[in-house]
């Protein structure tokens, strides 16, 4: 029963996260879709602790769920506190949260990968590729993404880039 809920939350998180990556930053819609992402991720992380089919108990993917919860918490802390450079901190943590979500999705697809591919090739496809492309995007497009932020609509004050 938990797997359909877990999967549904994952789909909502994937879609809302993708939307916010391409949308104007700092708007009311950005915040609404961001909260949808945060709530669905929280549910996804929570339900992950009830999925035991692979290891029969607590396993390495559960550890990664804890890491995912940490990146999400740090991503939410920045805009709630609005400290110096909060926009950049939020950007870094929330994008890494989304990259982790993509890698977790890859974990679910692992068994359905190209037939005959060895483990290492599937690991590169489902984990290495999202992580590498995500890192290139996060660091390479940081300024471009920060320029899409709308400080007037967010009420961000003087500490925005």
Number of strands: 0
Distance between the termini: 46 Å
What kind of sheet is the major sheet?
A: none
Question: pLDDT below 50 for ≥5 consecutive residues: which ranges?
Answer: 153-161
C-alpha Rg, in Å?
17 Å
Oligomer: single chain
Order of helices and strands: HHHHHHH
Overall domain count = 1
Q: Percent range for helical residues?
A: over 70%
Return the average pLDDT rounded to an integer.
83
What is the beta-strand fraction? under 5%
Q: What is the count of helical runs?
A: 7
Helix/strand/pairing category: mainly alpha
Overall form:
globular
Note down, in words, how this protein is organized:
- This protein has helices at residues 2-22, 28-48, 60-81, 86-109, 119-140, 142-146, 151-154.
- It has 161 residues and is mostly helical.
- It has one domain.
- Helix 1 packs across helix 4 (86-109).
Secondary structure layout:
Layout: H1 2-22, H2 28-48, H3 60-81, H4 86-109, H5 119-140, H6 142-146, H7 151-154
Helix pairs in contact: 1-2, 1-4, 2-3, 3-4, 4-5
Provide tags for this entry:
161 residues; mainly alpha; 7 helices; 74% helix; globular; disordered C terminus
